[in-house]
Amino acid sequence: MSTEAPVSSARSVTNIDSMLKEKRVFKPSAKFTREARIGSFKKYKKMHKASLKNPDKFWGKAAEELSWFRKWRKVCVWKPPFAEWFVGGKLNASVNCLDRHLEGPSRNKAALIFEGEPGDVVTLTYQQLHREVCLMANVLKKHGVKTGDRVMIYLPMIPEAVIAMLACARIGAPHSVVFSGFSAEALKERTNDCGAKVIITADGGFRRGTALAVKRNVDEALLGTPKVKAVIVVQRTKQDVNMAPGRDFWLHDEVQKVSAVCKPEALDSEHPLFILYTSGSTGKPKGILHTTAGYLLGCHLTTKYYFDLRPEDVYFCTADVGWITGHSYVAYGVLSNGGTSLIYEGAPNFPEPDRFWRIIDRHKVNIFYTAPTAIRSFIKWGDDWLARHDLSSLRLLGSVGEPINPEAWMWYHEKVGGKRCPIVDTWWQTETGAHMIAPIPGATPLKPGSATLPFFGVDAAVVDDNGEETAPNVGGKLVIRRPWPSMLRSIYGDAARYRKTYWSEVKGCYFAGDGARRDKDGYFWIVGRIDDVLNVAGHRLGTSEVESALVSHPDIAEAAVVGRPDELKGQAVVAFVTLKNGVPHSNNLKESLRAHVAKEIGPIAKPDDIRFTDALPKTRSGKIMRRLLKEAAASPTGDIKGDITTLEDLTVLAKLKQTEE
Ligand code: PRX
């Protein structure tokens, strides 16, 4: 999620006191280093330095890895805060993801492996995926979609979600994917904001053993979307749905009526590829606009270097296509590299909490990319679920979405990765399009909890309120000091908001909304959104550091920390904690947690109030909704025993807040 407005100086994060000091360092294994693309830390540093010295040279050379109809004239034109990349070039993202892999043996290699929640498996080779994409592209054309027209995609995690994105890309129709767990209202708002005239959806999808009513939400949204002329419906669950004659069309009927040949459009480098909505805590969602060449290059290169993707790998990213991760690292980055992307439709704990381990074992997954929130659930569910499966095919693990607590990192490293897999902790955003800060596997020494160092061409820094770089271990604002190819180009239809939100806080810099510090080795430690910073008795503390300390206690599965106004200290620390299965609530445990935090960070960070809860209110993408917790923490009732119910209410509340992600 992104911050809405630039933060005021009253909430500045200069001098966040960073007290949690993680000392463990994990050097890349000799085996990984031997085979890696970038085989030493020295080489990474040299390449990074050169990329910053002459970015046009670096990006120009990198862009030769893409397939072009016409080469660009100029690598970058920068009229702050608006960038154009590969000016004058012409290409097509679907050609890069499909057609160019049809020429050799890779045409018969798996592009997509789909596992449905009921256990059904569909594998599409590059050739088969290409055919499906051409068919769907022709169906869109038949319904009047032209280059530049926007198309909504509201689908569960089924192959058609990827097919639909690439079909849009093929004809130059910018897509806007809306997470199928979002409400009718959210779909309506986004559809109207971008003025789409076609929606691609499904009858439903399987989740926790039941068929979700996806099409029903579309029907409701359509009551308020006057521009939508056609709805293309994928049949997934075969449940009864309403099909309005002349408006709703089954995809399986429509593909019978069109050709399987669809010539790709030769599109300008800056042609819009998609609009993805992301919401802040206030205001209407922002339509983050990404264009073709720069975005694709960012996804392509980061997938290659950070996931070390090889032709023989099975790569499994657990993100839904409704999020940027599902765009960049389920679809575009993996397919442009000719990789095999495994997607899974359902819940991680259906029918039992070992579903992901079962999938890894069944399909012999080599690369696994998930989020800390999922990792903490796995920890809570217990190690026994992993022990039942052979995870030895795994060779690399990834993490995304929020800071990974060092203890969760250690668990991931030991229990999932068998101590042999590098963990690539990737810091980036919907707005950045591709990874920005992450370790190069086989080259960068890892420190649990740190996303480590920036990607090539990325000039990241931690600065104070005056834009000056902070000293080692002094917190500040995480900024990017120059444009990069996969950066957002604007907020759809609102260039003024784009400028104000991202480019007005720190002069000349893109401000990401996150607080961070760099250690003496220059490693970045993200301490969370800067509006999540606590100020306790004059000390600024990152909530994620206190959370990490709590999670390092053996009884704790998950923790969320918020501030509560306090007359004496400015803010008091309130911790909501979820215990591991079978651990009873007790006052003794509260005391032991306080002592533990005091030991890990210092007495200043000791929670004033600890509340046990079975679940934390989360956004749809798994981020903890601290705003709701803050309200709960500040409520005068103060009766700790009643908190479980309160939180359950909050969870419901969170689900109802459809503008939240
Ligand atoms: O606060 C950072 C956090 O997620 C935000 C971006 O959220 P979104 O646009 O939804 O994209 C999520 C997928 C990239 C960031 O501003 N974040 C993301 N990855 C990390 C992270 N925080 C710490 N470490 C990460 N690896």
Structure description:
This protein has 661 residues and is an alpha/beta fold. 31% of the residues lie in helices and 22% in strands. It is built from 20 helices and 30 strands. It has a 7-stranded mixed beta sheet with strand order 5-4-17-16-18-19-20, sandwiched between helices. A 5-stranded parallel beta sheet has the order 7-6-8-11-12, with helices on both faces. Helix 10 crosses helix 11. The termini are close together. Mean pLDDT is 90; it is low at 1-14 and 638-661. Adenosine-5'-monophosphate-propyl ester is lined by residues 1-2, 278, 324-325, 399-403, 425-430, 451, 512-514, 526, 529, 621.
The largest β sheet comes out as: 7 strands, mixed
Termini gap: 7 Å
Shape: globular
Mean pLDDT: 90
Number of DSSP helical runs: 20
Helical percentage: 25-40%
Please report the total strand number as a whole number: 30
User: Uncertain regions: pLDDT < 50 for 5+ in a row?
Assistant: 1-14, 638-661
Describe, in short, the structure shown.
The protein is 31% helix and 22% strand. It is an alpha/beta fold. Among the domains are: 110-265, Rossmann fold (3-Layer(aba) Sandwich); 536-658, GMP Synthetase, Chain A, domain 3.
Question: Which helices and strands occur, and which strands form pairs?
Answer:
Layout: H1 30-35, H2 41-53, H3 55-63, E1 74-79, E2 82-87, E3 90-91, H4 93-97, E4 110-115, E5 121-125, H5 126-142, E6 151-154, H6 159-171, E7 175-177, H7 184-194, E8 198-202, E9 205-207, E10 210-212, H8 214-221, E11 230-234, E12 248-250, H9 251-254, E13 267-268, E14 272-278, E15 286-291, H10 292-306, E16 314-317, H11 324-336, E17 340-344, H12 355-363, E18 367-370, H13 372-381, H14 384-387, E19 396-400, H15 406-416, E20 423-426, E21 460-463, E22 476-480, E23 490-491, H16 495-503, E24 510-518, E25 524-529, E26 533-536, E27 539-542, H17 543-551, E28 556-566, E29 570-579, H18 587-600, E30 609-612, H19 626-634, H20 643-656
Parallel strand pairs: 4-17, 6-7, 6-8, 8-11, 11-12, 16-17, 16-18, 18-19, 19-20, 29-30
Antiparallel strand pairs: 1-2, 3-13, 4-5, 9-10, 14-15, 15-23, 21-22, 22-24, 24-25, 26-27, 28-29
Helix pairs in contact: 2-3, 5-6, 7-8, 10-11, 13-15
The structure holds adenosine-5'-monophosphate-propyl ester.
